[in-house]
């Protein structure tokens, strides 16, 4: 085990420059995930979810959340590549773990699945807050929906949600037909925060309140502002899933059939398993992870990259973009990758055409403006890792001998010059020798 | 022997002439050595370094030139300044200085004297000040003879105003431009005196060199037409004047247009209009004189009335067209710097960037005394001397001094143009005074001896008298000589004799009492001695500081502040080659030259908006500043702070200009927000805008840790806000004496936190109010 993890560490060390975070390309199956539980019985009650992870090659390390030997890193090296926190009631982690060290774990590029539940502790709320997710501050509140609940449920707190984000990258290509069952606490996102995203939203009729007490004042969180499951992709492409319900991942809801209130469709099996599996694929970078080669550019008809362009040069630009398929790097195919030729504002904005083998290229004319430009590829497609590439290149004006030597419109002036010179010569000759 | 015998009276005078020539040559060499060596104080006291700001750019350009050759230099597009706009160096720089130093370096290297480019650059200015004093000699000699020339050259060699711009290491345009200026004037006067087309051509070439070297060439192209106009108006028109002027305008303008930085400006801008106007006038005048020569007086009168009536109409039309053309351009076709010369309040009203430079301010009275010292008192005497008799040449120097006095009163920097004029005038005054005093002493002494030897024959007396007066009047004699220098000896002898004779008669009127003359002479010598002492002091103490290394003398010895080089070295060793460094524009040239890092703005203030952007960033609160800098890809921000050691020209003292310049382009920056009741202060009375702006924060961050109180030694007060944290910037370097502080822009936060407000209610007062503000970069 030691040996193995050392070799993993070594390999990931080699790959570090390539991918600047811990997601190891060559050994995705060796990825180590720490699972923190507040009760070891969760291991059996959520066994389907864990076994799908194991079957995909993850090395799960189950620990109690208050285990006094908990540590994410040793000697400055992280021991895990992913973290699953299924401990909504834990007030304090054991060992050296706290919300800051989990935030640092994410900032180092590692992934996190965090699940809260009704009466989630401040610690869990604090971690969610670090990721830009605000749980309902009333600790006894739950999501209640009187129109889109599951018919099997009495007090309308088991939500049958089907408002999923439309992104193949996050939820896979096969559509999730059955509604996802949810029982838990609501959270909201700051609309100005462009890093977080609602994956599973509540219906417009939902609200967040304590189901056992009478509602005295209007609930603070209502309607589709409520998010049930959210994801966050940090700027360093670390991925985080935050769910308001731990039960969502449980075997019971995975197995149970579902019928949404007021809907004739009855499904044998809820969408939970597919939803959780696909989401875990996304969060552990088995999908939607792009990498780009370096930006390549050169003048038309040349192959070497020049140190400087001249205004009005024709140039060709290309970049290779690959996507991680879970097993290997596959060419990424899209028609919406754009390149900017940028100096304080984009002077050229071109959509790149792809050859379906991962190469994106275009060609354009350098604008008639000199300065220090940048080739910029800013690609932030929903669910994909953000590509932000730039390469600086200066553009110079014409050299003194690159202008037109004779301008046709100036021929009258040339003529005037030479006739004056000739006339002066003749005049001097006549003046001097005509007696 | 035969020749001597054939010319018995000329022999002693020829000997004297030869002796005088050798002596003046020797004196000139010594003056050159003096001019060179008085400027070496900076090298001896500090070290052989380039000084100040602009010289660093010139040095960098010279390095480029020596490495890549002249064509690469001409086409150099510099992508390391004015990021991201870049700067076309070849087309925006006056190449004279660079080419001169580059040529010197190349010549020295090709004869196997392996000097570094830096050494050549450091010593270019002293070498050219020697040339400038020789040119002064030539010019003054043309005006008032070689005695005045020598005096003027000696004065110029050590005039403090010129020393301030040409000490070793002060590698700036003015270093060669003053030489070019004086030499151009010399060639103009020479042409005027000789009427030689050869000198006229040389004059155009010297003018070309001046255009290459300095923007101050417009002074020449306005002063010479004014003098021509003056000559025409005072009825001094002559073919010599025409030859001196017409080729200069034609050839000079053509040559000037060849310099890329001038280009079509040579015919398009108002600075050059005067020369063309006078060019037309001189042709009209020449035509009138020609017609006057071939017509009878009566016919001429008729022609005049006819031509004048038609001419007036044509002139009016032309003037109307010109005025309309000029008025159609917003500044009237004048560049900002020239306009601020004509209207001294122009810059402070409209162009803060020109007004912000201290050398563009009007000088104070003490600065006249500091910079030209006793010359200020000698100049009036020189002007009077120029009027007796008034010649074309002396009227030119009078005009020169009048104009330069005006311009120096507008801008401190143009004191430099005044200095040669003052030296020439004082040289003339000194030499004339010496002439008069020594002449009367000689006369008195000889008349005494005549009284004593009454019994001697009168035949013996005559040659003695002759000889004595001949010696004393050497100056005037030479001035008479130059007009006939090319003439044959035979012609000269009688003329000389005649002049000597006539002078004896004249001299008697100017004779002063013996005692008065001796006292006056002693006083003059004392005045000169005082001048020399002042100049040496100025050269040694006042003007030799390289400003890149500072020293201070205190009770416990000499302190050296080498913070600038320390921090530029830090930048070049600890940052990436392509990193961008933002600072106020003063430090742009030094950053590119010494740290080799890309800067946003530099001392070539060609783009006001870009400078205003940096000024705005410096005057904005942290977050807004971060956004501005980030949009310019800036990685590091450099500020200069003198509060710890009391260095007064730091960024806090320049800060109001940043606010003004920034506010000029971006109106949300208002100067009034930074002033408390019109007063600029940084203590506890300062406005919140001031205390929250980036410049304040970057300068005073952790400042209180130095002495526990936060006492600023420049502003002599305790600062207003002592304990604060930076949210968007982090300190990466602070130099030894805290003079230079470098900050790095923090990267964007990896995550965006949620709303803290809700948590705050739960955790009571645990979270400070600072984190409440919603800030996507936190």
Structural class per helix/strand content of chain A? alpha+beta
Largest sheet of chain A: 8 strands, mixed
What share of the residues of chain B lie within helices? 55-70%
* Large-scale geometry of chain A: elongated
Give the strand order of the largest sheet of chain B, numbering strands 1, 2, ... along the chain.
Answer: 6-5-7-13-12
Short précis:
The complex is a heterodimer of chains A (435) and B (778). By secondary structure, chain A is an alpha+beta fold.
Fill in the keyword field for this structure.
heterodimer, A: 435 residues, alpha+beta, Rossmann fold, Immunoglobulin-like, 2 domains, eight-stranded mixed beta sheet, six-stranded antiparallel beta sheet, 29 strands, 31% strand, elongated, B: 778 residues, mainly alpha, five-stranded mixed beta sheet, two-stranded antiparallel sheet, 36 helices, 65% helix, globular, membrane (chain B), metal-binding (chain B), dolichyl-diphosphooligosaccharide-protein glycotransferase activity (chain B), Oligo_trans_STT3 (chain B), STT3_N (chain B)
Description:
The complex is a heterodimer of chains A (435) and B (778). Chain A has 435 residues and is of the alpha+beta class. Chain A has 2 domains: 253 residues, Rossmann fold (3-Layer(aba) Sandwich); 107 residues, Immunoglobulin-like. Chain A has 9 helices and 29 strands. In chain A, the strands form 8 sheets. In chain A, strands 2-1-5-6-16-15-13-10 form an 8-stranded mixed sheet, sandwiched between helices. In chain A, helix 4 links the parallel strand 5 and strand 6. In chain A, helix 3 crosses helix 8 and helix 4 packs parallel to helix 5. The N and C termini of chain A lie far apart (117 Å). By secondary structure, chain B is mostly helical. Among the domains of chain B are: 129 residues, no CATH class; 186 residues, Rossmann fold, CATH 3.40.50. Chain B has 36 helices and 13 strands. In chain B, the strands form 5 sheets. A 5-stranded mixed sheet of chain B has the order 6-5-7-13-12, with helices on both faces. Chain B has a two-stranded antiparallel ribbon with strand order 1-2. In chain B, helix 4 crosses helix 29, helix 7 runs antiparallel to helix 8 and helix 7 crosses helix 25. The longest helix of chain B has 38 residues. The N terminus and C terminus of chain B are likely disordered. Chains A and B meet through helix 4, helix 5, strand 28 and strand 29 of A and helix 36 of B. Chain A: Pathway: Protein modification; protein glycosylation. Chain A: Belongs to the DDOST 48 kDa subunit family. Chain A: One of its GO terms (cellular component) is oligosaccharyltransferase complex. Chain A: This is Dolichyl-diphosphooligosaccharide--protein glycosyltransferase 48 kDa subunit. Chain A: Keywords: Endoplasmic reticulum, Membrane, Signal, Transmembrane, Transmembrane helix. Chain B: It catalyses: a di-trans,poly-cis-dolichyl diphosphooligosaccharide + L-asparaginyl-[protein] = N(4)-(oligosaccharide-(1->4)-N-acetyl-beta-D-glucosaminyl-(1->4)-N-acetyl-beta-D-glucosaminyl)-L-asparaginyl-[protein] + a di-trans,poly-cis-dolichyl diphosphate + H(+).
């Amino acid at each position: 085990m030691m040996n193995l993890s050392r070799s993993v560490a070594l390999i990931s060390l080699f790959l570090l420059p390539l991918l600047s975070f811990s997601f190891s390309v060559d050994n995705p199956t060796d990825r180590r995930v720490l699972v923190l539980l507040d009760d070891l019985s969760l291991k059996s009650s959520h066994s389907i979810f864990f076994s799908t992870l194991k079957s995909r090659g993850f090395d799960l390390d189950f620990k109690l959340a208050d285990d006094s030997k908990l540590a994410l890193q040793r000697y400055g090296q992280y021991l895990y590549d992913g973290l699953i926190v299924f401990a909504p009631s834990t007030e304090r982690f054991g060992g050296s773990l706290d919300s800051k060290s989990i935030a640092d774990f994410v900032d180092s590029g590692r992934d996190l699945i965090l699940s809260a539940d009704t009466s989630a502790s401040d610690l869990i709320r604090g971690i969610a807050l670090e990721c830009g997710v605000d749980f309902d501050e009333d600790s006894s509140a739950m999501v209640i929906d009187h129109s889109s609940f599951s018919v099997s449920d009495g007090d309308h707190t088991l939500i049958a949600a089907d408002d999923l984000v439309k992104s193949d990258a996050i939820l896979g290509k096969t559509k999730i037909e059955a509604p996802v069952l949810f029982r838990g606490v609501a959270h909201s996102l700051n609309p100005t925060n462009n890093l977080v995203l609602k994956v599973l939203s509540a219906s417009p009729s939902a609200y967040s309140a304590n189901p056992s007490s009478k509602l005295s004042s209007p609930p603070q969180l209502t309607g589709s502002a409520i998010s049930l499951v959210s994801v966050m992709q940090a700027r360093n492409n670390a991925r985080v899933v935050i769910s308001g319900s731990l039960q969502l991942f449980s075997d019971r809801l995975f197995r149970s059939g579902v019928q949404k209130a007021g809907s004739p469709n009855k499904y044998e099996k809820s969408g939970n398993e597919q939803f959780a599996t696909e989401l875990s694929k996304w969060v552990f970078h088995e999908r939607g992870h792009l990498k780009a080669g370096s930006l390549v550019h050169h003048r038309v008809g040349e192959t070497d990259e020049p140190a400087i362009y001249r205004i009005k040069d024709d140039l060709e630009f290309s970049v290779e973009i690959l996507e991680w398929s879970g097993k290997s790097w596959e060419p990424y195919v899209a028609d919406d990758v754009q390149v900017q030729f940028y100096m304080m504002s984009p002077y050229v904005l071109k959509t790149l055409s792809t050859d379906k083998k991962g190469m994106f290229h275009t060609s354009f004319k350098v604008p008639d403006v000199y300065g220090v430009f940048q080739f910029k590829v800013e690609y932030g497609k929903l669910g994909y890792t953000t590509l932000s590439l730039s390469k600086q290149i200066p553009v110079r004006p014409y050299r003194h001998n690159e202008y037109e030597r004779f301008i046709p419109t100036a021929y009258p002036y040339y003529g005037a010059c030479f006739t004056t010179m000739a006339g002066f010569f003749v005049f001097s000759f006549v003046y001097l020798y005509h007696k | 022997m035969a020749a001597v015998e054939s010319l018995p009276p000329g022999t002693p005078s020829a000997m004297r002439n030869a002796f005088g020539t050798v002596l003046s040559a020797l004196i000139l060499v010594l003056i050159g050595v003096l001019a060179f060596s008085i400027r070496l104080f900076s090298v001896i006291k500090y070290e052989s370094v380039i000084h100040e700001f602009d010289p660093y750019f010139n040095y960098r350009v010279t390095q480029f030139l020596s490495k890549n050759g002249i064509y690469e230099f001409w086409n150099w597009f510099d992508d390391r300044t004015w990021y991201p706009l870049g700067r076309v160096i070849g087309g925006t720089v006056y190449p004279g200085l660079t080419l001169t130093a580059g040529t010197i370096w190349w010549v020295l290297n090709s004869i196997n004297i392996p000097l570094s480019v830096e050494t050549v650059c450091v010593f270019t200015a002293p070498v050219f000040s020697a040339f400038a004093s020789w040119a002064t000699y030539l010019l003054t000699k043309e005006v008032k003879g070689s005695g005045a020339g020598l005096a003027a050259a000696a004065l110029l060699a050590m005039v403090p105003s010129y020393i301030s711009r040409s000490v070793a290491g002060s590698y700036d345009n003015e270093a060669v431009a003053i030489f070019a200026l004086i030499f151009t004037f010399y060639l103009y006067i020479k042409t005027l005196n000789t009427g030689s087309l050869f000198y006229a051509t040389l004059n155009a070439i010297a003018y070309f060199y001046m255009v290459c070297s300095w923007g101050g060439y417009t002074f020449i192209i306005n002063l010479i037409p004014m003098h021509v106009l003056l000559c025409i108006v005072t009825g001094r028109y002559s073919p010599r004047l025409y030859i001196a002027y017409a080729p200069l305008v034609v050839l000079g303008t053509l040559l000037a247009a060849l310099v890329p930085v001038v280009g079509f400006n040579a015919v398009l801008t108002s600075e050059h209009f005067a020369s063309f106007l006078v060019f037309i006038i001189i042709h009209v005048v020449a035509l009138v004189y020609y017609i006057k020569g071939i017509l009878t007086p009566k016919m001429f009168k008729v022609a005049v009335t006819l031509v004048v009536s038609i001419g007036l109409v044509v002139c009016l039309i032309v003037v109307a067209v010109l005025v309309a053309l000029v008025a159609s351009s917003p500044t009237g076709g004048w560049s900002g710097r020239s306009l601020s010369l004509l209207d001294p309040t122009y810059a402070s009203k409209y162009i803060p960037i020109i007004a912000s430079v201290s050398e563009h301010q009007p000088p104070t009275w003490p600065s006249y005394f500091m910079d030209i010292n006793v010359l200020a008192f000698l100049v009036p005497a020189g002007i009077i001397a120029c009027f007796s008799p008034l010649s074309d040449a002396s009227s030119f120097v009078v005009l020169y001094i009048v104009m330069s006095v005006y311009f120096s009163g507008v801008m401190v920097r143009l004191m430099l143009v005044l200095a040669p004029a003052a030296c020439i005038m004082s040289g003339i005054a000194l030499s004339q005074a010496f002439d008069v005093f020594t002449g009367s002493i000689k006369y008195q002494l000889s008349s005494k001896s005549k009284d004593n030897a009454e019994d001697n024959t009168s035949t013996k007396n005559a040659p003695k008298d002759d000889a004595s007066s001949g010696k004393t009047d050497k100056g005037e004699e030479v001035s008479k000589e130059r007009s006939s220098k090319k003439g044959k000896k035979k012609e000269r002898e009688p003329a000389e004799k005649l002049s000597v004779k006539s002078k004896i008669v004249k001299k008697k009127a100017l004779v002063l009492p013996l005692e008065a003359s001796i006292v006056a002479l002693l006083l003059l010598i004392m005045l000169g001695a005082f001048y020399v002492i002042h100049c040496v002091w100025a050269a040694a103490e006042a003007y030799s500081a390289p400003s890149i290394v500072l020293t201070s003398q205190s009770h416990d010895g000499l302190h050296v502040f080498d913070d600038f080089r320390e921090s530029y070295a830090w930048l070049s060793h600890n940052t990436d080659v392509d990193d961008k460094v933002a600072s106020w524009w003063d430090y742009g040239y030094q950053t590119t030259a010494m740290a080799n890092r890309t800067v946003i703005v530099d001392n070539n203030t060609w783009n006001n908006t870009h400078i205003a952007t940096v000024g705005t960033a410096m005057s904005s609160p942290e977050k807004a500043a971060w956004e501005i800098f980030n949009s310019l890809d800036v990685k590091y921000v450099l500020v200069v702070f003198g509060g710890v050691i009391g260095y007064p020209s730091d960024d806090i003292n320049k800060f109001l200009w940043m606010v003004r310049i920034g506010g000029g382009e971006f109106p949300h920056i208002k100067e009034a927000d930074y002033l408390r009741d019109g007063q600029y202060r940084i203590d506890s009375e300062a406005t919140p805008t001031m205390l929250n702006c980036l410049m304040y924060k970057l300068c005073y961050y952790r400042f209180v840790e130095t002495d526990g109180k936060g006492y600023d030694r420049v502003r002599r007060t305790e600062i207003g806000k002592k304990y604060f944290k930076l949210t968007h910037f982090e300190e990466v370097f602070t130099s030894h004496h805290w003079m230079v502080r470098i900050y790095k822009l923090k990267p964007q936060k990896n995550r965006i936190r949620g709303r803290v407000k809700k948590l705050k209610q739960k955790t009571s007062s645990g979270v400070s109010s600072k984190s409440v503000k919603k800030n996507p970069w936190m």
